[in-house]
Predict the 3D structure of the following.
Amino acid sequence: MRSDLQIQQDVQDELQWDAILKAAEIGVSVKNGIVTLSGTVDSYSKKIAAEEAVKRVKDVRAVAVDLAVVFPGTIDHKSDSSLASVALDALKWTSFVPEERIHLQVDNGNITLEGELEWQYQRDAAFNAVKNLQGVRSVINKLRIKPGPSAHIIKDNIWKALTRDANIEAKNIIVETRDRTIVLKGKVRSWSERSDVERAVWSTPGVLAVQDELTVSL
């Protein structure tokens, strides 16, 4: 296992590598493989990008994002009503999103999405449609997935999806079902494999929630 100092340097280098981020504005501290980001960014999408950059670094066990979204004084911050209008248009023009099923609220630049959809990819597409809009401070995704098959069938389909994915060591993963909530346990080799597992689970029809207890094996 590499030292916290080595991980810190790699995280700083990865933040510097990402063209949309200003790495000098982001503080990085590491303790026992747990990375904490602090400072300010000028958009919510940059906050998400910083977190994703950290997860690409080897030996990172967990990430705590303590980044504040602060808009520069030169930006004409949108009112909640105008931001809501722009966000609704963004959902409308995203082909994968059934915007008529989504209820959107905006409070001080914080967007909340609610409603019921058929698939996880629709939920992700709705989130991605609004996260990059100017004036967004955060996005709270409360969109639900419509109930589907029985828990037994869901678990079987998940296991088949995991075992046929070349990027996943399925033998190291335990899948538990609690009604239509999926609990993932075991170990993965990297954050990217963990993301692959989550994506495979969420792509399974009928999954309503995922509780990810997977650990990144060092």
